[in-house]
Each structure stands twice: as C-alpha cells, then as structure tokens.
Design goal:
The complex is a heterodimer. Helix content of chain A is 49%, strand content 6%. Chain A is mostly helical. Classes of the chains: A mainly alpha, B mainly alpha.
C-alpha cells in the first residue's frame, strides 16, 4: 500500500486529481468530503505512514483506524477516480481495525509480550477470506450477462487495441479469442474463491491468480490492482507458509523469532465490547453480501443508467463513452451560453462525467450556481448528450428538454435519462 | 483435480465452439500503423501541401501582375487564383502537425472575420509585423478577401484604391506582405515534409498521446468540430450566441458567393482523409476507415465506417439546399443553416464518440466553444 501511495504521488496525481480541479464530483450524502488544497498532501502522508504502521504492526489499532479514515476520505473526495479496488482496500482496512493482525511478527508484539500470540481465532482470517471471495464471486456473477457472454463485449473492443503485443498480439483481433477470454474470465471469477479454499487445488489456484492478473496487467491500464489481488489471495494459504516468509524476513533483520513463538493462543473474548465488535463485523459482512444487489430496486437497464452500479464489484464490465454539450439559459432573458467544459473540469473529469448521470446532474447544478453567481437569473441548464455503450451506436442519453437545475440527486429512479431501448440480460 | 480437469475441458469446449461458429476471416496480423502513416504522408498530406504551394505561387504571381497593372481584368484573375488557393487551403487546414503547428499556419492563413479597421490602420501606418499573433485577423485569405473584394461595391471602385487612392502604394505593399507570408509558410511546410518530417512522422508509429496516429486523428476530429462545424456554420448562424446571428462572420464574407463551396470542399477533404483517398486521384489506401474495418467496428448491424460515410453524404445533400452565399442564407432563412448544422453535428458525434471509442484514442484538444 505504501508503494501504491508513492506511485500515486510520483505520477503527480495528487495535484492533478485533487488539487488542480476547481470542482469535485462528490458522493451522495458525502458532499462535505473535500480536498484541502495544498494540505491534501498531508493527508496522503498520513495515509502512507499509517499503512506502514499496519505493515510493521506498530501501534496497530491506531494505524489501522487512521489508515481507514484517511484512505476512505481520499477515495470520497472525488468520485471521478472511483475504482473498485480502492473500495476493496477501504473495506478491508475497516475490518482490519477489528482484527488482531498485530498478534505476531509485529513491533507491538515485540515491545509488549502481552500482546504477542502465536495463534488467533480462525474467524479473524475467515473474514478476510470471505471479503476477497465476495469480490471475485460477485465480479463473476456480474459477468453473467448477455453482452459479456454472447457478444464478447466489451473485450471485443478492448482486446484488438493490444494487437501490437508480441506473440499474443495478433490473436487479440480474433473473434474466438474474445469469446474465450469472456467465458474464461467469468468462470475464473466464480470458481477461484472455492479453488483457493480447497487445500488440494490451492497451489494451482494461486498459479491461476498470478497468470490471470499478470495478463490483465498487460492488457489493460489498471494500475496496482493485479498486485493487490495477487498478494491478497495469499491469505488463503495456511499459517505455515506465512510463518516461513515472516521468519525469513525477521532473520534478515536479526530479530529473534522466539518472542512470537510463545505458544500462546488468543481466545475469543466474549465480553460486551468484544461481542459488540463481532456483531458489527458480521452485520457489515451481511451488508457486503446484499449491497451489490441494490440495482434490483431500479427498473432501468443497469449499464445504461448506472443506478446501483458502483460498490458492486462490477469490474471492467463495459465500454462506455459519452459526448456532452451543456447549454445554460438565463430564465428571464432567455440568453443562452454553450458551456466550455474544459473551463471547469479536467479532461479526466470531463471524460468520466460524459456517461454517468449522477456526474452530469452534479455538474449541471455546479453550472447553475456558477452562472447565477456571475449574474444570470435562475439559470436553466440543458444538455445535449450522447452515449455509446458496449459496441452499440451512440444514442441520445439525457432528455435535452429537461432543465437539470430543477432535478435533484436521490436514490430514486432518474426519470430524465432517455430509455436504452435494448436489453442486457443477466445479473 | 477432477474439478480442474472439468474446468479446462469446459474452457476448451467453449473455445472450440466459438471458433467454429465464428470462423470469419479476421486477419491474424496486427494492424500496420506504419502503412497507415505512410499513406497519409505520401499520398495525402504531402501532395495536398504541394498542391497548396502551387496555388499560392499562382496567387503570388497574380498579385505581382495586379500590383504592376491594377486593372479590372487583372483583379478578376487575382480573384480566381485567390479562390483556387483558398480551396487548396481547405485540403491542408487539418494538418496542423509538425512545421504547420510550429509556425501557426492555420491561424495565420485563415482567421476570420478579417479585421478591416486594423488592416486599414496597418496600411496607413506602414508599420506592422504580420508574424505577431495579434495580426492573425489582418492577413491570410480573409485579409485578401477584404483587400480584393471588400473595399468598394464595384470593381472600378476597388481598383481605384490601388491606382488613384492616396494610400495606393501602401496598399500594394500590404498585398505583397500578405502573400509573402502565405508563400513563405507554404514553402517552409513543404520543405520540412520533404526533408526530414516525413520520416519523423512515419516512425512515430506508436499508440501514445504524442504518436502521429493519435495527433493526426485528433486534428481530423478537431478540424471537423471546431473549424468546420462551429467556424463555418455554428458561429455565423448564432448557435453559440443566443440566436444573435453573425452573417458577417461567414468565411469569404466579402466575396460573398463562395462560402458554401469552401464548406463543401472542407468537408470533402475530411471525408477523403477518413477514407484514405489519395490526393487528386481515386485510389484509396490505409486510413481511419480501413482501421475501423480491421477492428470489426460494427454498430447496430452496420459497419461504423459506412455509418460515417452515409452521414457525410447526408451532409452534402443538406449543404446543397443552401444558398451559395451562407451569409445570405443566414439572413434569409437561418433554419436551413441550423438543419445543416444538425446533420453535420450528428457526424461529429459518430466520429468524436463512436469512432474514437472504437480506435481507443482519447480527445486531446480543449473545447473552444462557449462564452
């Protein structure tokens, strides 16, 4: 994680994503989460230090809490950069607060033998396995849809762009390869948690994990996600394996392992506080299992309107792009202005905004406020908007006659999105 | 192990099925971007610039003749060569890459409307440096348009400005200064392509933002959206100004009967580039179209390249219903201009959204519309 943050900073992304833009796309209910200008760097430093703290097991509880808070805050500052794996890191770090991951091979345990335990309750590991399992399994479920399986979309669009690669490149423009990748990806996602759980298939499953993620790393621009998943899946290996690794590291550091080999077992404490913690962790897991199905509450096509799309492990599922031209009209004089998006948004924000209705709406409200400030009377905001999804020809997306300034964000169905007039069957 | 065997047999089964079902003839080689860039450079861009250079040289000769003898006959010849060169310009306007980009070729040659007041100020002071950016709207084809079509309502009235007028000599000097700059820019660009830039352009055959493919494709889209759609139609028709029409902002406003023709030529240049059609003959080579077809870009059951070409056809049909003078059309019946704008706008969407998505190229230029 530390490496990931350094990567983020070294690419100048802090500046680009969180400080430079004049305007940030916020999460509904979390509009108060904003970057703090140049001090945003401090937040990243805090996040990096607390990640280091977790890894070394130094002041573990505080580190985990700080990491969860700072990382999640960063994630919530601008939903333009939403990625499923950031969300994964957030929920894992939330759970980590409640787990005794500092019991062994940690500075905490080294300094205070009372905190050192060789064995910890198995549920604490199983929780993490379950979280990882959910990610894979739900990602697999989401792939069971007619576009993915029967049209090989969006891989049919993405893979040919890599046809410059050595050896595999030329195959990536072949139809059967698109279908093979689609089906294999679906089966892989659905089965990998079980293959990892089952001892006899575990090594093989891990080889699959490595191959699969290295391949996605080569084919798609998805940053550190493959490495996060590869490392995370090590949690499925039994304690002997981890011990060997850790002993190897501690040997190098000349730290005696005997402190940690105390034979002590941390028993589950069933006091009030602990029970409360357990209850929280388990109800959180229940939410995790149910939350991705919230799209069922909306009638519209999920991929088209994206109502209930995020936080559901819908990873690399669709190729969607948009074209938007906003028109602001003075409600009294009827004077109208065509908005130049690049005045307010970074190219990345503009790109993400163009096909996501909640972004379009939030931006429309921003435009309303901005033009009101510069003297227009109660500006009306309209948008000429087109979206192309999974190899379909672009279509009008938002009703151009709707004054978006009068529409409000909510979890209710958005009526101003024009119908998709097609169906993607499946999860 | 059984599970694994099952999994593998399942995967290979699917692979086998889908390969037999879809045994169409998609090529097994990767798309040859070098061939694409070579076709662009050798058969389209360089010949277009050479043609432009020839036409500018002819225009330069006409101006020299007119300056020597400012007669109405020589004025007519000058106008003809001006129009020929202006049309040739429409074929090179989108190639703002390399030298053309460096020397702000497009802005110098075709910033309109021309600023008549400042042109007159330049002429009377005799003190100007056309290579300054603030001089963009006082030179190029729009500047010449004013100087040979806009000084008076009759030809004799115009020639009088070059014969009997107190500033006649200054005005002739100004004509020479404008054509000298047009010519030196054309020469510089052609020389650069011929000497080193051709190879630089072709060898930059990667996928990055600064690759030739990426930059040229962006130029192609930008020229269609900004220079043609907004510049030639949207702005004069008042679409960006609350319906306040600006007929005087049409291209070649003073000549007044060629703006539709320039629009058609500019769109033809775009379509020819899209299809990889060689300049001045009907052969076609590697192009955005062939790249899209290679990628099997099919939308709603139709090849995306066909959808785009059909929309080009619809655009010509719509343009042909307009007056040869767009400014007159805007004044008399602007709804027709807006209708043409909308047909063209649909193709901007197909190209900027659907085509760029299929090619996986990002838009790298900023929106210039708006307030």
């Amino acid at each position: 994680m530390v490496l990931s943050l350094i990567r983020f900073a070294s690419y100048g992304w802090i500046e680009k994503f969180y400080i430079a833009p004049q305007f940030h796309f916020t999460y509904y209910g979390f509009e108060w989460v904003k970057p703090f200008g140049i001090y945003t760097y401090l937040l990243f430093i805090l996040c990096g230090l607390s990640a280091l703290g977790i890894a070394l097991g130094y002041k573990y509880k505080t580190s985990a809490l700080l990491f969860f808070l700072s990382f999640t805050y960063i994630e919530f500052m601008d939903k333009t950069t939403y990625l499923n794996h950031y969300y994964f890191i957030s929920i894992v770090s939330l759970i980590l607060i409640f787990l005794p991951a500092n019991a062994s091979f940690s500075i905490d345990a080294y300094k205070n033998e009372e905190k050192a335990f060789q064995k910890i309750p198995s549920w604490t590991i199983d929780v993490l396995k379950l979280l990882l399992g959910i990610v894979y399994f739900y990602a697999g479920l989401a792939k069971i849809n007619s576009d993915w399986l029967f049209k090989a979309m969006p891989l049919k669009i993405w893979l040919p762009n890599n046809s410059d690669l050595p050896i595999i490149g030329p195959f990536l423009n072949q139809n059967w390869v698109h279908y093979t990748f689609s089906w294999t990806g679906m089966i892989y996602d659905l089965s990998i948690p079980f293959l990892l759980l089952y001892k006899r298939t575990r090594i093989f499953a891990f080889v699959l994990v490595v191959v699969f993620h290295i391949l996605t790393k080569i084919l798609f621009p998805i940053g550190v996600f493959p490495y996060v998943m590869i490392i995370s899946s090590l949690i499925f290996f039994d304690s002997n394996f981890h011990k060997k690794c850790l002993v190897f590291i501690t040997d190098k550091l000349n730290v005696s392992k005997n402190i940690f080999e105390n034979g002590k077992t941390k028993f589950q404490d069933f006091g009030k506080l602990s029970s409360l913690k357990m209850a929280f962790v388990f109800s959180f897991l229940a939410v995790q299992i149910l939350f991705p199905f919230r799209y069922l509450g909306y009638n519209n096509e999920l991929f088209w309107t994206e109502e209930g799309f995020r936080f559901s492990w819908r990873v690399m599922l669709m190729e969607k792009a948009g074209y938007t031209q906003f028109i602001v009209v003075d409600s009294k004089t009827k004077k109208q202005t065509h908005v130049n998006n690049s005045r307010f948004l970074t190219p990345f924000q503009e790109k993400q905004m163009a096909f996501q209705p909640d972004f379009i709406l939030e931006y429309a409200h921003f435009l309303h406020d901005y033009y009101q400030r510069i003297g227009l009377s109660d500006p009306e905001v309209y948008v000429e908007s087109y979206v192309a999804l999974n190899g379909r020809l672009s279509k009008r997306y938002i009703d151009p006659k709707i004054n978006l300034a009068k529409e409000n964000e909510s979890f209710r169905q958005k009526t101003w999105i024009l119908p998709f007039n097609d169906e993607i069957k499946g999860f | 192990m059984k599970k694994i065997l099952f999994l593998f047999s399942f995967i290979s089964l699917i692979a086998a099925c889908s390969s037999s079902e879809d045994s169409n003839d998609s090529p097994t080689t990767s798309y040859d971007k070098t061939a694409l860039l070579t076709n662009w450079a050798d058969n389209i861009i360089i010949p277009s610039f050479e043609n432009y250079q020839t036409k500018v040289n002819a225009l330069s000769a006409s101006i020299a003749t007119f300056n020597g003898t400012p007669s109405e006959a020589n004025l007519a010849t000058l106008r003809t060569s001006w129009l020929e060169a202006y049309k040739a310009f429409q074929y090179v306007s989108m190639y703002t890459i390399g030298k053309a980009e460096e020397i702000t070729f497009k802005e110098s040659a075709n910033t309109y409307p021309a600023n008549a007041t400042q042109i007159e100020a330049n002429i009377s002071s005799g003190n100007y440096n056309l290579s300054q950016n603030l001089q963009f709207d006082r030179q190029g084809f729009p500047g010449l348009d004013y100087l040979i079509n806009g000084l008076a309502t009759t030809d004799s009235g115009i020639t009088a400005f070059y014969t009997t007028d107190a500033l006649a000599s200054n005005r002739k000097t100004y004509l020479t200064a404008v054509i000298t700059r047009l010519k030196s820019q054309a020469d510089a660009i052609v020389n650069d392509w011929r000497s080193t830039y051709r190879n630089t352009f072709i060898s930059n055959n990667g996928n990055s933002v600064s690759s030739s493919l990426n930059k040229m494709t962006n130029n192609f889209v930008k020229n269609l959206e900004k220079d043609i759609r907004s510049g030639k139609l949207g702005i004069p028709a008042g679409l960006f100004s609350n319906g306040t029409k600006y007929p005087e902002k049409t291209e070649a406003y003073y000549k007044n009967d060629v703006s539709r023709e320039l629009l058609t030529v500019a769109i033809k240049a775009e379509q020819d580039f899209f299809n990889g059609k060689h300049f001045n003959n009907s052969t076609t080579g590697e192009s955005l179209k062939s790249y899209l077809d290679y990628l099997n870009a099919v939308r709603s059951g139709q090849k995306l390249s066909d959808i785009i070409n059909n929309q080009f056809t619809a655009t010509y049909t719509s343009i042909n219903s307009l007056n040869t003078s767009l400014s007159q059309q805007i004044t008399s019946d602007n709804a027709k201009v807006i209708a043409t704008y909308n047909v063209l706008q649909q193709n901007v969407v197909y190209i900027k959204l659907d085509m760029m998505q299929a090619l996986n190229i990002s838009i790298d230029y900023v929106d210039g519309d708006g307030d």
